[in-house]
Amino acid sequence: MAMEKFKPHLLMILAQICYTFLYFITQASFNHGMNPHVYVTYRHIVGGLFMLPFAYFLERGIRPKLTMTLLLEFFVLSLLGVSLTLNMYFVSLNFTSPTFVASMLNTIAALTFVLAVILRLEVVNVQDPRGIAKVIGTLVSLGGVTIMTLYKGVILKNLWHPIIYIHQGGNNVVKENWVKGSILTVASCIAWSIWFIMQAYTLKRYPAQLSLTTWMSFVGAAQSAFYTIVVQHKRVAWTIGFNIDFWSIMYGGIVISGLVVFIRLWCTEQKGPVFVTMFNSLATILVAILAYFIFGEKLFMGSIIGAIIVIVGLYLVLWGKEDPKSQRKDEEKCCTTKIEHQEDNMMKKFQLE
């Protein structure tokens, strides 16, 4: 029972661990010369091909019939969650750093919470302690993200030399255009927030997470390919060798566009969009730790203070989202099952005698 109850929590933690490695493998690929727009296109083709057999066979009986309305929703979802958002997101990563981008993504939770309350997907009872915890937790998390982004503080000395040096060669743009990168990051966060909200509505009419993941991958890949062909005419940009570019595409396609997107869809259906976005803060913390200990990136005291505040806010929101009534029902159901099991054993024993 406990494992079933915390299944969404464990899956979202796994998803954030997967996202943590994504930041570094994609940055290494971009530094190697990989075009971000080509990467997004190839990644989602791989993700769609990987998820297609699972979606076709496992959801054959539960997959609703396609309508023009659903196809239009798939198009908009793919635009918000794949082609438009990810193209802005990875270009911003090329201009800034993994730690900065991961920190900014935490604003998605606050934006999604506000939109969910406005659209009545999230209920907030200010007279109930749990309702107040949701509001305070969201504000606290947003405050922690703000500290991580704006306040640096003292630089912590590296205890040892970096284990891995990320290659900085290739035709990569020098990371000095932080303003452009910041604007693109904020724009991608707004688009992602709308995407999470829209998913909740689409899943009610199309409750087939594997199929929806596949549709978004293929449609998003087509949208990204169209845009990339317009802005990138060089044939060499589409040529991928058996190097870091290949592995970043495979990892992003199979693990992120396939497995992680499916996990997020399932958790959105089970717990709502706000629950899913609140776990973005874990990736921020994991990225900062990995960047410091493994890759030798500078770690500031402001990042540590902000991370602690973010964790406090996350726990407040998760506590606020727990429904004590459903918990009591689970306990009563558990007790009833135990009593019924004991009665069955007594009846069998009586029959044997």
From TrEMBL:
InterPro entries for this protein: EamA_dom, EmrE-like, WAT1-related
A molecular-function term among this protein's GO annotations: transmembrane transporter activity
Cellular location(s): Membrane
Record-level GO cellular component terms: plasma membrane
Bilayer-crossing regions: 12-30, 42-58, 70-91, 97-119, 131-151, 178-198, 210-229, 249-267, 274-294, 300-319
Topology in the lipid bilayer: Multi-pass membrane protein
Keyword tags: Membrane, Transmembrane, Transmembrane helix
Family the entry assigns: Belongs to the drug/metabolite transporter (DMT) superfamily. Plant drug/metabolite exporter (P-DME) (TC 2.A.7.4) family.
EamA domain mapped to chain residues: 9-148, 180-318
Protein name: WAT1-related protein
Pfam families: EamA (PF00892)
Keyword Transmembrane helix: yes
